[in-house]
Structure formats: structure tokens, C-alpha cells
Give the backbone structure.
Amino acid sequence: MRENFSLRLLLVLVLALAPVLGTGQLRSVAAEMETVSIPNFFDQRQRMTKPQLDGRQRIRFLTTTDYPPFNFLDPRGRLAGFHVDLVRAICEELDVLSRCQIEAMAFKDLVPAVKRGDGDAIVVGLAMTPTTRQELAFTEPYFRYPARFVTRKDHQFQEPVAEATAGKSIGVEEGGAHAAMLGAFFPSAAPRPFATRRDALEALKNGEIDAFFGDGVGLSFWLESDSAADCCVFSGGPYLSDRFLGEGLAIAVAPNDRALARSIDYAIGRIVEKKGFSELLLRYFPVSAF
């Protein structure tokens, strides 16, 4: 499921561009923006009643500072990022903003802190595995990592991509999940493993391979970087797989606190419904990975 840009955000951006673009360019920008879509992984068919959190004196969210753009320290040394703004939006939706706290600590300390009661929820890239599911309860996933092909602009894949990739040299990181996923999803492609993503992308720029297959989020930032030198674009996709890429990002709570997890699910559902999640994604992911 996907949501289009909210009309309000579109209007704000178009008005901001008006002084520097001509009328024709402005129409082109607006038309392009209207075609951009972003993901919505929350099932809006769910009908949940607003939870009551009156008995909680505070709700303590724990995160880290080393996972940009999800959580990091800004130039002033303040905690910032997608997760920080998401927590704020959740607390506003639940009418508990004055009782919400967010604290950063080392990743290894997150689960022990929740276990001993020094935090209520973990909002960071904590994988949902059999081990973590025994230790914690999770909300519904709110974000998933897509796999994408990147090609040079003059050699894009046409649909159907499964046919377009047949016999083509596709760079992958050696031994990684995306290499395994490429073999399963596109068995006719000719994978070429590289020790690092950087080596593979340099090979792509130099025309040594036809495409690179990897994490769409990381690649979305690379496409806009100086390193890419405006060489390349996404081709086909996005491709999602629980088996190869995991179930995505969710917020973790203590195993006996499923009421908080369901409350967070309710809040995220409302944020999605109001298009707030769309705007939040666009704030931190200006080039859509989807």
C-alpha cells in the first residue's frame, strides 16, 4: 500500500519554488511530485479504539545516536532524526507528550535497560528475531527496507525486470542478504560479487557491470551524493522480502507491556491516516527508496 504526497506538503514546496522557477518549470516540478509515492506498511483496515494511558506517570523511549537518518546528534549536539520525530508524533497522538521522554544510550544497553525497568520502549533498528521475540514484545512494523536495482541512466531496465536482467551482470555485496535474494528472485541474472558496496558502485559507474542490487535506503542517499556524480537511477522495484530482509522496523517494549505496544500501534495508525507519516518520511528521505 502507498500514499501520495499530501496536498498540503505539495503546495508548500511548490510555493517555495515559485520565486526561482519559471511557470513551465514549476508545472513540471508539481507534476513530478504528484507522481511520487511513499510506502504505508500499516494496515488501515484495522479499527482500534484510543487507549487510556492515565495510569502511566511517564513513558520512556530509548534510542541511540549512531543510526542516521533515524537517530543522530544534530550540529548543536541535540538528539534528532526520524525516530525522534516519530516518538513526538506518537506522544502527541496519545495526548501524553508532557509525560514522554526519549533518551539515547549505547545499543548494547537498550534491552537490559527495558528489562530492569529503566525504559519503556526501544525505538531503533532492533531486528525481530526468535531471540528478541522471547525477550521483548513488538509493535506492528512501521518501516521496511526495500531492495532495489541501480543502473546507469542510459541503461535502465525495462519491465518486466525478470526478463530484462536475464544474463546481465549484477553487482552484489559478497555473501550478503541481497546476493541471496537476487539468486532467488532473479535466477537468470549473472551475479558478480564485490567485497564492498563502494567497489560495486564504482564498477557500475565505470560500465563494468550492468546494475547493482542492494539496500534501497542506502542507495537512495548514494544517488544524490557527489560520489554518484548523477550517473545512475533506480530501475524496477521496490522488492520486499521477510525471508531475506527481515520484517522491518518496529518499536520494542517489555514482554508484559503489550498494552503499550498496542497503544503505539493505534498512534501510528492515526499518524498514517492523517498523512503525518508521509511528511515525516519525506523530511528524512527526500529521495524515495520505494
User: Anything to note?
Assistant: DSSP finds twelve helices and 15 strands in the chain. The two ends are 11 Å apart (CA to CA). Confidence is low (pLDDT under 50) at residues 1-36.
